[in-house]
Amino acid sequence: MVEFFFGFFAIMILFCSVMVVMSRNAIHSVLWMLVMFFHVAGVYLMLNAEFLAATQIIVYAGAILVLFLFVIMLLNLREEMNIEQLIDGWPAGLSLAVAMLVVLILALGSFSVKPWGQWSIEVVEKTTQTKALGKVLYTEYLLPFEIASLVLLVAIIGAVVLAKKKLKS
Amino acid sequence: MVPLHWYLWLGSLVFCIGMFGFLTRRNVIIMFLSIELMLNGVNISLVALSHYMQDLRGQVLTLFVIAVAAAEAAIGLAIVIALFRNKPTTHLDEIKEMKG
């Protein structure tokens, strides 16, 4: 049963990723990406990461993709749909990506892990997943968390400065 | 129980599809979407490793990746708008004023 769900999510994720890359219209790409994010959230649920599944839907699908849609609708992209979607040298890109895949899969063949951490499923179940994640995030990873907030602040200010019209003085 | 390697293969495949898109498309917005695809492939691997190693650090790293992806999308799309104001195209081969 679990294998069946994994197969469904994997096939949908791969199909949607290919459609994102290959579709001619940028809006269609963003909408395929939306479907793909929901299925990635399903994979997270299978891996007992409920908080991350919610974050995936709220932040990725709710915030980032809406930002993409806004920008595409602000720009007028009629001419882009008439040109060929791939560049002329696409076999080079394809062979590079396939070579990367082969290297990754060969490297993963000899890779094995042991469950050595303290957060087994029973412990996480007892403390609830969000609380356990918060405990790790706010104690062990407090400094990176603060730095991430700083990165987001820089992004807000930078986006405003870059996208603002120059004022005539 | 799904073995760990299936998740890692899924993550690698998504990463490579994103890499192919980044290398072969010249529409700025779809190139950004390809970067998001690559980040998602990494996220799947991180969450799978976090589950199978019974450690929550992978999930914490995934949260940071999502935060950085949000920042990157905001900055990148602001740059796209600034570029579009100077030259109304999102096709990167048209943008060659800096001779780069």
How are the secondary structure elements laid out?
The complex is a heterodimer of chains A (169) and B (100).
Chain A: H1 2-22, H2 26-46, H3 50-74, H4 90-109, H5 121-127, H6 129-139, H7 142-163
Helix pairs in contact in A: 1-2, 2-3, 5-6
Chain B: H1 4-24, H2 28-52, H3 57-86
Describe this structure in words.
Chain A has 2 domains: 1-81, NADH-ubiquinone/plastoquinone oxidoreductase chain 6, subunit NuoJ (Four Helix Bundle (Hemerythrin (Met), subunit A), Up-down Bundle); 118-169. Chain A contains 7 helices and no strands. With 169 residues, chain A is mainly α. Chain B has 100 residues and is mostly helical. Chain B has one domain (4-99): Helix Hairpins (Orthogonal Bundle), CATH 1.10.287.3510. Chain B is built from 3 helices and no strands. Chain B has helices at residues 4-24, 28-52, 57-86. In chain B, helix 1 runs antiparallel to helix 2 (28-52) and helix 2 runs antiparallel to helix 3. Chain B is elongated, with a radius of gyration of 17 Å. The model of chain B has no long low-confidence stretch (mean pLDDT 89).
Total beta strand runs of chain B? 0
**What can be said about the biggest beta sheet of chain A?**
none
The percentage helix of chain A is: over 70%
Shape of chain A: globular
Runs of chain A in which pLDDT lies below 50 for 5 or more consecutive residues are none
What is the number of beta strands of chain A? 0
Q: Gap between N and C termini of chain A, in Å?
A: 67 Å
Count of structural domains of chain A: 2
How many helix segments of chain B?
A: 3
* Largest interface by Cβ-Cβ < 8 Å: A-B, 89 and 73 residues
| Shape annotation of chain B | elongated
What is the C-level CATH assignment of the largest domain in chain A?
Mainly Alpha
